[in-house]
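**User:**
Make up any protein.

**Assistant:**
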Amino acid sequence: MPDKDKIELTHSLESDQLDWLSEIIQEYDLPDESKAIRILLDYAIEDADKDAIFSPDNMRCRRC
């Protein structure tokens, strides 16, 4: 499948977030972190309630 309209992007993640992504990649046999993040974003765009995701009640920092 061609890359269509993919744009290179650099993200900063906490080490435990990357650890979790690595576990998901192995568990679901995904090619890389980029694919895992695209799956998460597609789910959030199409199926999730953005108000639930981004409401102040749900915005939390596990490291604060």
Summary: The chain has three helices and no strands. The helical segments are 15-27, 33-46, 50-54. The radius of gyration is 14 Å. Residues 41 and 48 are 10 Å apart (CA to CA).
